Amino acid sequence: MVNLTVDDKQIAVERDATIYDAAKAAGIRIPILCHDKKLHPFGGCRMCLVEVEQMKGRLIPACTTPVSEGMIVRTMTDEIIKARKLVLELLLLKHPLDCPVCDAAGDCDLQNLTYEYKVDANNFTDEKFHWEIDYDNPLIERDQNRCIHCGKCARICDEIVSYGAYSFVNRGIEAKIGTPFDGKLDCEYCGSCISVCPVGALIAKPFKFKARWWALNKVKSVCSYCGTGCQLTLGVKDDKVLTTIYDEDQGFHNGQLCGRGRFGYQFVNSDERLTTPLVRKNGTLQPVGWDEALELISTKLQEARKNDPSAVAALATPRLTNEELFLFRKLFKDVVGTDSIDHSAGYAHEALTAGLKESFGITASPSQIVDIQKSDLLLVIKTDAYETHPVIGFEINLGVKRKGVDLRIISDKTGKLAKLPKAVNYLHKPGCELLLVNALAKVIVDENLAAESAAAITGLDAYKGMLAGVDLNQVAAVTGVSLESIRELATAYAKAEKALILLPIGLGYPGHGKELAQALSNLALLAGKIGQEGSGLLVLGEKNNSQGAADLAIHPTAGGRDAAAIIDGCASGAVKILYIAGENPVVAYPDRAKVEKALDNAGFVVVLDLFLTDSAKRADVVLPVKSFAEKCGTFTSVGRHVQRIRKAIKAVGESRSDREVLADIIARLTGEGVAADSATLFKQIGCYSGVNYDALGDAGAIYPVNVSPKFVPVVGSVPATEEGKYALLTGSALYHCGTMSLSGVGPMLVCPEQYIELGRVDAGKLGVNDGDRLKVRSASGELSLAVKVGLRMPEGVVFSPYHFADASINSITSGKSVTWVSLSK
Amino acid sequence: MEQVLFRHNRPGRCVTISEYRAGGGFLPLEKALREMSPDQVQQRVIDSGLRGRGGAGFPTGKKWSFVPRDLPGPRWLICNCDEMEPGTYKDRVLLEANPYLLVEGMILACYALGVEHSFIFIRRGYETAATNLARAIAEARGAGLLGENILASGFSCDIDVHLSAGRYICGEETALMNALEGRRANPRAKPPFPAIKGLWGGATVVNNVESLANIPFIIAEGADRFRSLARIPEASGMKLFCVSGHVRSPGCHELPLGIPLSEIIDDACGGMREGSSFKACLPGGASTPYFTPEHLSVPMDFDAVARAGSRLGTGGVVVFDQNTCMVRATLNLVRFYARESCGWCTPCREGLPYVVRLLEEIEAGRGSLEQVALLQEHVRLLNHAFCALAPGAMGPVDGLLRHFEEEVVEHVIRGRCPFN
Ligand SMILES: Cc1cc2nc3c(=O)[nH]c(=O)nc-3n(C[C@H](O)[C@H](O)[C@H](O)COP(=O)(O)O)c2cc1C
Ligand code: SF4
Ligand code: SF4
Ligand code: SF4
Ligand code: FES
């Protein structure tokens, strides 16, 4: 610790603190324009100048100057005020001062400081710049005339996002933030640059002219897209969510969001939202009152409850709150008496609900997101972890670039993560993950690198026995990863003091299921990487409450039908009533034609959704439900983090929350009222008994788990290949998450349609360029898709995301990790 | 007069390696590698009192001593030959006549610092100098004086010549490191200082060409000999003064430090031009406050010049006669700096163009006394810039207001430039 005096206050701070940090710790605010706690110090604006007794003669920037013992700092003298005023006056010299039409007004550091320092007259006059404004990209309006050259946009895009869209160009007064070749911005559209811009030089187009900043109500909540669980602040006015607001003090991620979190909020107030219940009459869905719809559903369920509960099945989206999932389970398992409930197509949660459940005795990861930056070595399964969980991607970026974390990736493509400094990507043939993971374990055993702790874990002998059968040379030949690489990776992993494995899961990743999770658990146990900070295994649940759905066991636990069997049951007539809360099986589950037929064949289908989805269109009853912005409750995100969402607006139309609907139906069936408030429900959730709902606050809580580890040998198999065909992989597009982002507007502006991505060599062979179309034919169907040529895909391997409703990729896939397709123009 | 830097020079051409060696060149290197430890080399440079010739006058040996001996990872030496300051051309003259001194000086510095790889960062326009250096480096390598296992001593080091992409700010040592790394040439915050964390994050020393070129002499002849070369006891060594402006024969001369300004002008440069009388000069390059006739007897050494209210800087003396409008001369200089600002910090990026405007107004006769006061305030406030460029740019403005305030005010009162 270092002792110093700031404005007569004695204070002790860490060695690496700056004067700015020290003042902040002492409760003294030093004005800043270019400083951001997340970024490397910049020191350019000169707003934070202070006086240091020991460095008399000139003023010192607080944000870049480290503290030293005995320093005596003054943060406000006449000379300091003069210097700060000069900075403001100089910045205003060229500034267009178009505050009346600037969306940053009220939230603008330049405006606020100008006010605070009473810069009411400018001694200076000068000509203004007339830089052309970049209106040409879908989401970010860039007006360099308003720029104050703090460099934060360029720095955050480089340091944290690792994209590098901006750089200063020109010199002197002509200096400005430029894009490559000074063209229009073309980037990831995460919006991080907007969030840190202290002025209105970068603004979110969707929010332009929507509201004055001070008129917005700011409501803290949690993002409802992926499982990262980023906290966000909704900007609300007149019961509309108009924007997301940056708050650098929110969450582990310091307010950072990805593009869908930042720009994908518009589904909440979309004109397409369902507003009344619909019941199919004479073949068409017609608006009815809630009572009629609920009575109809209850009657059907009541009948089945009495006669044949097993003919009832229910699917829930892991976007519902824990409290809703709790009631969902209660209604179907306890009240109706069917075990045929499931979510995420049945396979996208197995890594947790079956894999980790057997290997660790829990349905959750033993590790947390904060372990990423604390680790020495990260072993990421697929570079897609960035696309599925972009803000976890930022954590990886920071770990690698700031903490020197050794990044190793086992991947079937060369995505963004592979380009991080010193990252090693072990590019393998599609579908070979399990073989590789077992091969790593084999090397660890062969080279005596196993941890001592492994000996005490049940099943080691059987595991070793299984590994004895692994033929490393064969693995190398099949996977395309050389024996040396396998050895090197295994050794590095085993020898790293702290090593963490990341496994993204989701509908687009059928291969990331139970077995892969278990193989990885075995590997981590073998190498002794479970149970300490910075080590372990982190399974990245796809959606905002995937972890909650796993914890609450929204899947069959007593021999009931899983999602695939439910679909089959509908087709065969065994399932007569299907209740679908927020899932969109037609678009997201494997084999679209089969799902469509099944839904059409089911006797009675209820869909609860925000929108009339392709699945809802086939229902008998459609109920309009509230979005995350209209209700309260909790989500559980990656790493067992339970967080509260808060009601920000009134219900859209007549929507009710799934919680209200479920409670109503339960009451109708049982004749007894059920508590439907979140607090009461949460307290009934057994697996969260360790969490105090009332104390969740803004930060949320990580619920504790006890790991009881076990080796569960899983044997890899050599994936089948088809000569002359391309391996089609599915997964997440960076801008989308599930199918909800399709209504998020922002994501659709950047990534509007289903596409097929291929490498340059294949594109050359096929004679196609970006934007051309290709016919993609598999055993189960054919699609015509737009071509995207990039550097990610190796030869012979193509990729297509799964989110889109039109030309949805499940028209040609059937739930295997690799689909073999032929491509033609 | 004893010459240190020009002693090997041949009239009208560059010296050859054999001539250089015949004149004792590379013997200091042999001597150091055979007889001296790196610490001893460094100590001798400290004892010699050599101060940096790149502008700031920081003691060279002391700068070297800031590099921690035990810091892991590679360390670097960079020779700064960007030389883009108006009025400064000494490094060019030196290298066009003799690149070997620098090469030898750098090898000695590398030896003292434990550097295995060093760079010469050279102004793009210095083609002859760069060619000379490339040849000298190749010859030295061929002669076993550079590269692996130099003179069988076990010590290895190499030198790379890097052509600057060409901006004044590239000469600022931290911006230079950014440029060398392939980044935009913005200065970096200090601390961390380059000696701890510089090029590619490694310990780095940046020295000017002339500073390094003095090292062989210091090693060969000893610290005391070097000190005694200066004209006054507090100074040490010789200095290249590159004189331009209204003198009879402008040029670059190697003269003892501490020599009075008048001797440089009168003896070395043949006095003022016909019809000219001395009005002012920039004593040390374009970023130093003016000297006036009252300063003609000031001994030209770092501390003495500082005591007289200016800086010795690079030793680029720019002389102005009685017909020079000091407002216009200053405007011309500040324009250069405003254009060359990297744009990083507010005072420099926005402040210098504003100072240019103020000076333009005053020069055009549209100025006011309030503007003169504003100018004065800027001299003080632009000191708070990120790097030394803006404070340097305000050097001449400072001098203008201190020594020629009447001339400035005359512009305002008469509503025109009195020299028109
Ligand atoms: C804007 C600016 C430009 C500079 N340009 C040069 C230059 O061209 N050559 C040089 O040797 N030093 C230049 N310097 C000084 C260097 O930063 C550094 O102090 C010097 O190279 C150190 O060498 P020395 O210790 O041998 O003097 C410049 C400094 C500033 C602020
Ligand atoms: S939106 Fe994100 S990726 Fe695009 S420039 Fe801004 S910070 Fe970079
Ligand atoms: S655009 Fe905004 S964030 Fe970027 S440099 Fe300008 S003011 Fe700073
Ligand atoms: S989609 Fe995921 S990563 Fe993006 S903001 Fe939402 S929770 Fe965070
Ligand atoms: S906040 Fe410190 S210089 Fe900008």
- Secondary-structure arrangement, i.e. CATH architecture of the largest domain in chain B: 3-Layer(aba) Sandwich
Bound molecules: flavin mononucleotide, iron/sulfur cluster, FE2/S2 (inorganic) cluster
Give the N-terminus to C-terminus distance of chain A in angstroms.
Answer: 67 Å
Q: What is the percentage of strand-forming residues of chain A?
A: 15-25%
Low-confidence stretches of chain A: none
Number of domains of chain B: 3
Q: Provide a count of the helices of chain B.
A: 18
Question: How much β-strand is present in the residues of chain B?
Answer: 5-15%
Provide the structure class of chain A.
Answer: alpha/beta
Count, helices of chain A: 25
Poorly predicted sequence stretches spanning 5 or more consecutive residues of chain B: none
CATH architecture of the largest domain in chain A: 3-Layer(aba) Sandwich
Largest interface: A-B, 36 and 32 residues
Overall, the morphology of chain B is globular
Q: How is the main sheet of chain B built?
A: 4 strands, parallel
